[in-house]
Amino acid sequence: MEVYSNENEQVDALRRFFADNGKALVIGVVLGVGALVGWRYWSNHENGSAKETSAEYQKLTTELDGSKPQTVEAVTQFASNNNNTYGALASLDLAKQYVDKNDLGNAVTQLQRGLQDTKDANLQAVLNLRLARIQLQQKKADEVLKTLDGIKGDGWTAIVADLRGEALLSKGDKQGARDAWKKGIDSDASPALKEMMQMKMNNLG
Questions:
Q1: How is 124-150 classified by DSSP, letter by letter?
Q2: What is the DSSP letter of 27?
Q3: Contact 97, 72 (CB under 8 A)
Q4: In angstroms, how far is CA 10 from the centroid of its own chain?
Q5: How far, in Å, are 20, 63, 82, 88, 138 from residue 102 at the CA level?
Q6: Which residue numbers delimit the Ancillary SecYEG translocon subunit/Cell division coordinator CpoB TPR domain (predicted)?
C-alpha cells in the first residue's frame, strides 16, 4: 500500500502557505505607546527570522536526497533546531525518505516529532494521517484507531473513514469497517475516494 497517496495536495498547500507568509501569526492585545513600539520591534524581528527559517527550509529540503546521507543529516539537524512549523515540515520530509527505504520505525519517530513542533491543525492532521498509514503497514490497528481519533475537522472525514475501515477490517471487525466506509461515502468525499470505499464495502459481501 502506498503510504503517501491521499493528502499530498494538502501538504503542498501547507508548504505554499508557510513559504508565502514566512511568519507564524501571533495575535495579542497591545496597550500603550511603549507596548506598541515594543510590539513593532518584536514583530519585525520575528518576521525577519521567519523569512530566514523559511528560506533555509526551502534550500535544505530541495537538496534532500535519501541516497546522500549528508543531505538527510542537514535536514535532521534543521528539524531538531526548529521547534516550529518549519521543523515539523522538515520532519514530514524526512519521514517520506525513511518510508522510501522501508525504515518505518524512523519514519514514525519523525512524524511524532513533527506533531510536537506544530500547532497548525491542518499540518497536524497530515502528520497524523501519514502516521496512521505507517501504523497500518506495521499491523498496529489499535494504534491506527488512536491516531485517527486525534484528527479533527470535517475536511478530513473521508480519508479518516477510509483508514478507520482498513484498521477495523484488519481486526476482523467487518461491520465496523462497513460502518466506517459508509460514513466516508456519505461525507463530502471525492468521487474517486467514494468509489474506492464502495468497492471495499462490496468486497465484504
A1: HHHHHHHHHHHHHHTT-HHHHHHHHHT
A2: -
A3: yes
A4: 9
A5: 33, 21, 26, 21, 11
A6: 15-205
Look up residue 118 and give its three cell numbers: 506544530
Is 140 in contact with 128 (CB distance < 8 Å)? no
**Contact between residue 108 and residue 131 where contact means Cβ atoms under 8 Å apart:** yes
**Cβ-contact 7, 151 below 8 angstroms:** no
Beta strands, E only, 71-117 = none
Question: Are 76 and 102 in contact, with CB atoms under 8 Å apart?
Answer: no
Handedness of CA 32, 36, 38, 39 (dihedral sign): positive
Please, which pLDDT band fits residue 8 given cuts at 50, 70 and 90?
low
pTM (two decimals)? 0.77
Amino acid at 90: A
What span, in angstroms and rounded, lies between the C-alpha atoms of 153 and 102? Answer: 30
Query: Which pLDDT tens digit goes with each residue over 113-126?
Result: 999 999 988 899 99
Structural domain boundaries of the chain? 1-20+35-143, 153-205
Residue 69 pLDDT class (50, 70, 90 cuts): very high
The mean pLDDT of the chain is: 82
